[in-house]
Design goal:
Layout lengths: L21 H11 L11 H8 L13 H26 L6 H15 L3 H12 L2 H28 L8 H19 L7 H22 L7
Length: 219
């Protein structure tokens, strides 16, 4: 007598949903990616299957996978900017300082299985031109906000200024995201070392920008 083996989960269609939202599709895409798989490797059919819809239903919310991925990148950038902004506010009452606390917050999000972070860190190098441009826009937003912070923090130190604060903000942002991408491939046991390195590098950039402007930090 023979028995039927259980169907493979991959071969069993997910229950179809009556309706689908953009958020549902974004969540489905995030569920499929991780440290070793980027959005650029996903197919429309995979995302539709994860969301529990027919592939044609995908087009009610997005033109194609490129549009979905850009939406993910935009959401990732907004989420991280909000979190880092909150860290900067907390730094006012912390003896660790804004640099250290911001870097720690960045690394905490990276290790918290925050797949939005993986989107930002991976798609800027592994994705299509559209993805890279979307990531670059998000980095530009980080740079704009950081530039204002650098100017404010310098001015609070006896009216100091920085040489080309926009360039300093760009150097810091690109440094953090490049090292964040490296951290994804390293074990968490290396985090403290990376945090220390990033914090020192950021301070070196700030000190250099202020010194070149004739206003070196007092400590």
């Amino acid at each position: 007598m023979t028995t039927n083996a259980p169907a493979n989960d991959l071969d069993t269609p997910a229950p179809r949903k009556a309706g689908i939202s953009r958020d549902d599709l974004l969540a489905a895409a995030l569920a499929l990616i991780g440290p070793h798989r980027s959005v650029s490797t996903l197919s429309l059919r995979e995302v539709a299957r994860e969301a529990g819809i027919a592939p044609n239903s995908f087009y009610r919310q997005f033109r194609d996978m490129d549009e979905l991925t850009v939406a993910l990148i935009e959401r990732a950038g907004l989420s991280l900017r909000t979190i880092i902004g909150q860290a900067r506010q907390r730094a006012a009452g912390s003896d660790r300082g804004v640099v250290r606390l911001s870097v720690e917050t960045f690394m905490e999000q990276l290790r918290a299985d925050d797949r939005l972070m993986h989107v930002l860190l991976r798609e800027g190098t592994a994705g299509s031109d559209a993805y890279k441009q979307a990531v670059d826009r998000q980095l530009g937003y980080f740079e704009d906000e950081l530039q204002l912070d650098l100017i404010r923090l310098a001015a609070a130190d006896n009216g100091a200024v920085l040489l080309e604060p926009a360039l300093a903000a760009k150097a810091i942002t690109r440094l953090i995201f490049a090292m964040g991408g490296t951290a994804l491939d390293l074990p968490p046991t290396r985090d403290e070392e990376l945090i220390e390195q990033m914090s020192h590098m950021i301070r070196m950039i700030i000190t250099g920008a202020r010194t070149l402007a004739g206003h070196p930090p007092r400590n």
